[in-house]
Amino acid sequence: MKNEDAENGARRHRPGRLAALRANFLTGLIIVAPVALTLYLVWWTIGAIDAWVLPFVPKKYQPSTYIGVDVRGVGVVIFFVFTMLVGWMAKGLIGRSLIHWGERIVDRMPIVRTLYNGFKQIAETVLSQTESNFEKACLVEYPRRGIWCIAFVSTSAKGEIKGSIHVDDEMLSVFLPTTPNPTSGFLLFVPKRDVIFLEMGVEDAAKLVISAGLVYPNPKDPTRPAIPANRPTAAE
Fold first, then answer.
1. CA distance readout (Å), 137 to 59, 69, 106, 141, 200
2. I need a surface site. Which of 14, 77, 166, 203 has the fewest CB within 10 A?
């Protein structure tokens, strides 16, 4: 009787076929979903650029006039070539003069001036080809003592900010990102003594923020995939 009870208990605890199918589906979904979403986003972006650029191209020069169907990506090529030509012209004396003349006109328009300057600063920050980047990932206490947040050290405080904050320590400008969208956040000026620097890289810290704490960097081998939060490390 005891052997039969043990066998019945083993059958009850053994995962069934439905559980195995569910595990296989979730494993496949983890692999397929990022690829599918990436391809969809690229396809949608190409279509959006085509829809914005092609109306400016005369109908007789569009591929649909010759082959009867729209070729996706033609607008992207035209936009790429046009942008390169504008960049090449902007490097010359005439191009710089035209840009300065246009910006002087824009500065006389109150609402347009604000929008243009805002978009220009965003573009220069995001697309700048300088080596400026976040230096290290760190922990800061925010919004109160005892609550720690992941942040990124951008640089030391300079100019008026440095002169206006009277503390006996170096002040760091720290970017505190939001979850799950790290492109928005808060700029904090924090004394260096109140900052805990992390060994993990900026990219790994960003993954931790985006995943809302579900994916941690591999502490043993940074070249290996990240470790889910519910999976213990080898040390544990």
1. 52, 50, 39, 14, 7
2. 166
Ramachandran assignment for 178, one of left (phi > 0), alpha (psi -120 to 50 degrees), beta (any other): beta
C-alpha span between 215 and 203 (Å, rounded): 12
Judge whether residue 10 has pLDDT over 80. no
pLDDT digits over 25-49, tens only? Answer: 888 888 898 899 999 999 999 989 9
CA distances for 189 relative to 40, 115, 150, 151, 154, angstroms: 39, 27, 14, 11, 10
- Nearest partner of 187 among 154, 150, 147, 144, judged by Cα: 154
Q: Are 77 and 103 in contact (CB under 8 A)?
A: no
Backbone Cα Rg of the chain: 27
Query: Are 202 and 136 a contacting pair, CB within 8 Å?
Result: yes
CATH number of 136-228: 2.30.30
CA-to-CA separations, 30 to 24, 39, 64, 209, in angstroms, rounded? 10, 15, 38, 19
Cβ-count burial of 121 within 10 angstroms (0-12 exposed, 13-18 middle, 19+ buried)?
exposed
Per-residue pLDDT reduced to its tens digit, 73-102: 888 888 899 889 888 888 887 888 888 888
pLDDT digits (tens, 9 = 90+) for 68-79: 777 888 888 888
Q: How many CB atoms lie within 10 A of CB 91?
A: 8
